[in-house]
Amino acid sequence: MRRCAVLASMVAVAVSAGAIAVLPVPVQALEPERYTVYCADDRIEISFWDLEQMKVRRGLDVCQFASYTSYSDALNFARKNFGGEGESCSC
User: Fold this and answer.
1) What is the pLDDT of residues 4-61, one digit of tens each?
2) Which residue of 19, 50, 77, 79 pairs with 14 in a disulfide if CB–CB is 3.0 to 4.6 A?
3) What whole-number distance in Å separates Cα of residue 88 and Cα of residue 40?
4) What is the rounded distance in angstroms from the CA atom of residue 66 to the CA atom of residue 53?
5) CA 78, CA 61: separation in Å to the nearest integer?
6) What is the DSSP letter of 31?
7) How distant is the alpha carbon of residue 16 from its chain centre?
8) Cβ(88)–Cβ(42) under 8 Å?
9) Distance (Å, rounded) from C-alpha 29 to C-alpha 65?
10) How many other CB atoms are found less than 10 A from the CB of residue 57?
11) What DSSP element (H or E) covers 49?
């Protein structure tokens, strides 16, 4: 345990003295997950898949209505405009 403390203090002294360079690492910003309201198979569906993924999974008869960064906003849109998720719709 004593060795760890000595090593930690040596590293701290080296960093503060500028002996060890700390280089900035570029960080990519993460895209926020999107929740999109779709009409798929004649029903309202909320999904985080994009339109192309939905067409692969549900077929070509898929249309997109709105996209949000929160599930609750997407759900509110579906409720206000269609009566909620699972309700009937058409493209």
Assistant:
1) 444 445 444 444 555 555 556 565 677 778 999 999 999 999 999 999 999 999 989 9
2) 19
3) 9
4) 16
5) 18
6) P
7) 38
8) yes
9) 26
10) 11
11) none
Spatial distance between the Cα atoms of 89 and 37, rounded to a whole number of angstroms:
11
Contact criterion met (CB below 8 Å) for 84 and 57? no
**Chain centroid to CA 27: how far?**
16
Query: What is the per-residue DSSP string for the chain?
Result: -HHHHHHHHHHHHHHHTT-S-------PPPPPP-EEEEEETTEEEEESS-HHHHHHHH-S-EEEEEEESSHHHHHHHHHHHHSSTT-B---
Q: How many CA atoms within 13 Å lie on the side-chain side of 25?
A: 2
Structure tokens at 73: 């906003």
Q: What is the largest CA-CA distance in the chain?
A: 71
Q: Note whether 43 and 88 are within 8 A (CB).
A: yes
Q: Does the predicted TM-score (pTM) go above 0.70? A: no
- Whole-angstrom distance, CA of residue 62 vs CA of residue 47: 12
